[in-house]
């Protein structure tokens, strides 16, 4: 809270419990251990060694009740003496309750446990959706779609969207469309990733309900699409539980690893996988490590350190704004390289497939604006930088249903993660009552 100015609520508790060792390790620092020792261990030793003499039980209870009542009287008295100023202060500064230790994380943990309990109590079989879904027999062409789920990327850091630095030198040479007005479902991976594949949309999305309900991948698999999820992040957050899933954070699987396993390693052997699918459409999801913070300097190989000096620590408070921006932008530069490699792979399959790439980030990131870092703030409080995300699309030369010029005409259309479910069904030409053409922003 002190270092990154984050807020503790039930979503942040959920994020903490769902992370993995590698992500958590990026948050460990000498400052953190100093806090733990000076404000945790040493005071705990004094408390442990203190010789507390208790009164008889009945007298102890009465004494404590008197103390509590006295303090409540004082607090209420002070409140009513300044009720006008106090009421307006808390009304205008509602987020202040998230700074109240230890009430914030006790309340957050209680709400998180409550959500889990309600989920267990109401367990039921997986709810199917789109039972009527089908691909019409008139669809003779084979689709090959690679969807890249980005991580922690801000739309305003892509030169395709007008950023002053050339963070997309390779994509600028490709015939791509970058959508400028895209809003994420949430501000964390745990919410945004399952939400973007859900039929419920941001307003109706419930994380626990989503685990018991089919998503876009389930529908596509049922109609015959070959679905593969390759993950270089913490997990699919339940989205890929019923399709082929491969963990590319494992050096035994990902052949391109140095300080950490690289996103581009997910492309190794992918052509072989495509060649082994003799029929049917193919959907491949590549879940990036992308720009996951705070150790942005770890997210790219050293040859991509174009913007210098770059922050070389996870203690962002020790770096200048320029150094943080440089490290973050270098990671965007590596994503540019990765997406370019995806497009080049798809070009090799132009003759056999109607090929396309869809890239969209799960959420954005705060880089010190208003002294806020990282992400995960409640939607109603989150700054634009945590929800304004990039979305890029590339179409192969054999893609008959839509031209790149038609797509480019829609680049400024307001889009949210709510659209993704319907876009995927539309790209695969799936017919169903649940498909809403008005939410498929690339539809003709």
Structure characterization notes:
The protein is built from 14 helices and eleven strands. The chain has helices spanning 10-18, 21-25, 30-49, 57-81, 83-92, 103-121, 189-196, 201-204, 207-210, 216-222, 270-275, 321-347, 404-408, 420-427; strands at 143-150, 176-179, 182-183, 226-231, 244-247, 282-287, 354-361, 366-367, 373-374, 391-395, 415-416. The longest helix has 27 residues, at 321-347. It starts with 9 loop residues before the first helix and ends in a 17-residue tail after the last helix. The model has no long low-confidence stretch (mean pLDDT 91).
Concise overview:
The chain has helices at residues 10-18, 21-25, 30-49, 57-81, 83-92, 103-121, 189-196, 201-204, 207-210, 216-222, 270-275, 321-347, 404-408, 420-427, and strands at 143-150, 176-179, 182-183, 226-231, 244-247, 282-287, 354-361, 366-367, 373-374, 391-395, 415-416. It is of the alpha/beta class and 444 residues long.
Set down the secondary structure blueprint.
Elements: H1 10-18, H2 21-25, H3 30-49, H4 57-81, H5 83-92, H6 103-121, E1 143-150, E2 176-179, E3 182-183, H7 189-196, H8 201-204, H9 207-210, H10 216-222, E4 226-231, E5 244-247, H11 270-275, E6 282-287, H12 321-347, E7 354-361, E8 366-367, E9 373-374, E10 391-395, H13 404-408, E11 415-416, H14 420-427
Parallel strand pairs: 1-6, 1-7, 3-11, 4-5, 4-6
Antiparallel strand pairs: 2-10, 7-10, 8-9
Helix pairs in contact: 1-6
